[in-house]
Design goal:
two-stranded antiparallel sheet, mitochondrion inner membrane, mainly alpha, TMEM242, 3 domains, 200 residues, Transmembrane protein 242
């Protein structure tokens, strides 16, 4: 009997060790997925920051070039200044840009920090859950209430022009099965149902 209890104990110990190994493997898999996600997130953030910076630089450069081409005399006066102006136009614009950036970043930062503190969250995940419980839920379109796949652009535009704006109505039939039909067909459906019930 002692041998049987030792066998059972060793079997249970093996089962526990096997479970521990499975849990460790599962946790390692989760950590790898997390690292993969954050690596992708960082790459996406770097990409978007680069695109934003280049777009701003190109936009500012093209605007400056078009102004210079449009009125070169006053453009040069804005760069060098004159006796009547205490500072050049570029310095004035740069100062305005700096103050505008300062006010925008500070104002948004204070607003977001205030919302964070009012919510009472301690980390981003807790904040997400609290905001998710406060804000209205977005209903899922499952099953889809309208078409979601189209053969081409022509098919999509035809659908938008003809079918998209029509109201649809659920009608309960005699056998308690629901039928989705267009509002224009309701009268015809009701008449057919009424006539079929009279014939019986």
């Amino acid at each position: 009997m002692a041998a049987q209890s030792e066998d059972m104990f060793s079997h249970e110990t093996d089962t526990i060790e096997q479970s521990k190994k499975e849990v460790k493997t599962y946790i390692k898999g989760i950590e790898k997925e997390k690292e993969k996600f954050y690596g992708t997130f960082n790459a996406a953030a770097i990409f978007l920051s680069t695109v934003t910076g280049l777009s701003a630089f190109i936009g500012f450069g093209t605007t400056l070039a078009s102004v210079r081409k449009k009125d070169p005399k006053y453009f040069d006066k804005g760069l060098t200044g004159s006796r009547r102006l205490q500072e050049t136009g570029t310095l004035l614009a740069f100062r305005a840009l700096c103050w505008g950036t300062f006010y925008a970043v500070t104002g948004c930062g204070l607003l977001f920090y205030g919302i964070w503190k009012i919510s009472g969250a301690k980390n981003a995940e807790e904040f997400r859950y609290k905001m998710g419980s406060l804000l209205p839920k977005i209903p899922k379109n499952n099953p889809p209430q309208s078409r979601v796949e189209f053969e081409g652009l022509t098919d999509l535009l035809t659908y938008i022009a003809e079918d998209w704006g029509k109201k649809k109505v659920w009608i309960m039939t005699e056998r308690y099965s629901c039928v989705l039909i267009h509002q224009a067909e309701v009268y015809e459906f009701v008449m057919q149902t009424h006539l079929s019930s009279l014939e019986k």
